[in-house]
Amino acid sequence: MREPINLAQAGPGNFKRTRSRFVEALWILVEFLLVTNPLQVSSGVRAWALRLFGARIGAGVILRPRLRVKFPWNLEIGDNCWIGEGVWLHNQGRLTIEENVVVSQEAFITTGSHDVYETMDLVIKPVVIRRGAWITTRCIVLQGVEVGENAVVTPGSVVHRSLDAGWIYGGNPARPIRERWPGGVPEG
């Protein structure tokens, strides 16, 4: 049996600050006022604030109220995406959301976790959500995952491994349920 890990001695792992603590603190204030704030109704203002801090946000992106973004400089969202109310993008590392993706209400996507077997160091791996994918309400997508093109993750599912394109997944852990379009992707 291993000895308990002393969390106070856990090291920083592979997390490297790419912005000063001042910029991080300024982002927290701007996020609170313009992005997370449920009284701020403009998706355009949210996108502007994220871009101001280095996010790459495509055209036609809808960003709903109560959105949380850890580090906007690690975020890329393609054209015509919809990011739902209460979504939390905990992106200590690179998070790429390609075009025509939906991330529904209260989904949580994280690029970080901890080395639970040895040091408790923070471990960061990028997450990629490919075009046409749908992460439905209250899903959790964990570090190092690639969600395939046109994949759907059913409500409340936990994704801890990469998912193939064109399938519907569900559960904890997420498993394949069936092909999304057995006859091929519909025209139009």
Please name the defining characteristics of this protein.
2 helices, 19 strands, alpha/beta, 188 residues
Describe this structure in words.
- This protein has 188 residues and is α/β, with parallel strands linked by helices.
- Helices cover 13% and strands 27% of the residues.
- It has two helices and 19 strands.
- The strands form four sheets. It has a seven-stranded mixed beta sheet with strand order 2-5-8-13-16-18-19.
- Helix 1 packs antiparallel against helix 2.
- The longest helix is centred in the N-terminal third of the chain and has 15 residues, at 21-35.
Q: Estimate the global geometry from the Cα principal axes.
A: globular
**For the CA atoms, what is the radius of gyration?**
17 Å
Specify the biggest β-sheet. Answer: 7 strands, mixed
* Overall pLDDT confidence: 91
Sequence of secondary-structure elements:
HHEEEEEEEEEEEEEEEEEEE
Separation of the first and last Cα atoms: 58 Å
Strand content: 25-35%
Report the count of strand segments.
Answer: 19
Helix content: 10-25%
Query: Strand order of the main beta sheet, please?
Result: 2-5-8-13-16-18-19
SSE arrangement:
Elements: H1 21-35, H2 43-52, E1 56-57, E2 62-63, E3 68-69, E4 75-77, E5 82-83, E6 88-90, E7 95-97, E8 102-103, E9 108-110, E10 112-114, E11 122-124, E12 127-129, E13 134-135, E14 140-141, E15 146-147, E16 152-153, E17 158-159, E18 167-170, E19 175-179
Parallel strand pairs: 1-4, 2-5, 3-6, 4-7, 5-8, 6-9, 7-12, 8-13, 9-14, 12-15, 13-16, 14-17, 16-18
Antiparallel strand pairs: 10-11, 18-19
